[in-house]
Amino acid sequence: MVIDPLQAIRRTNLRRLIVELKGDGIATSKALARALGMACHTLADLREGAHITAALARDIEWAMNLPRHWLDCEHDREPA
Fold it and tell me: Are residues 51 and 7 in contact, defined by beta-carbon separation less than 8 angstroms?
């Protein structure tokens, strides 16, 4: 199976956001989904490997008050 590099970056960044939210005490699936600007079933689908569309990526960025296309860029050198 070939993994799309953009999807890999988006998944890494989404996991990073979830870790940060959990560190802020937002830990239930319902609360995480709400903070990320999506429905619970969408978050569950993403956790099972669903494709992160460009529209969904922009919605997550907006909900988290992040710059546009933040989810599409590697942030390895930035503090988590």
Answer: yes
**Is this model's pTM higher than 0.85 or not?**
yes
**CA-based angle 58:29:72, to the nearest 5?**
25
For each of the chain's 80 residues, which pLDDT tens digit applies? Answer: 567 999 999 999 999 999 999 999 999 999 999 999 999 999 999 999 999 999 999 999 999 999 999 999 998 765 55
Q: Is the dihedral of CA 55, 27, 34, 29 positive or negative?
A: positive
Two tokens at 39? 């429905």
Q: Which of 72, 78, 65 is nearest to 7 (CA)?
A: 72
Alpha helices in 1-80 (DSSP H): 5-23, 29-36, 40-47, 54-63
Reading the block at residue 19, the tokens are 């870790």
CA distance 69 to 61: 7
